[in-house]
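Records of this kind hold a single protein each, on a pair of labelled lines. Below, a sample record shows both lines together.
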Amino acid sequence: MTDETNLNRRRFLRRAAVTVAAIPVASLVLQPHRHVRADTPKAEDGHDHDYVNDAADADHANYQEGQKCENCAFWAGEQENGWGGCHHPDFQGVLVNAEGWCSVYAPGA
């Protein structure tokens, strides 16, 4: 084989390898964005740790004015209409209200 043939063959193989490697990435990027939060239940009052959906309803000795889920260190951010995730292990798998409160409240950074 000539040097030109080898060079063309290498270019082809390199491009083919990049193309094949890009297919899984492209399929992930081009998928419609799916939200699992539609299936995620919302925590109800009394869920765990004296949780309430409205901090104003908190009737606990540790509650202090202004404390609520959205300014707690465990707050994972809003996902839908004032409801969001919580990083505390006892609240995994449920959404908590940004205006809610529980007894494991920790001041956010």
In short: The beta strands are 75-80, 83-86, 96-97. The chain has two domains: 1-31, 36-109. The domain at 36-109 is CATH 4.10.490.10 (High-Potential Iron-Sulfur Protein; Chain A). Helices lie at 3-30.
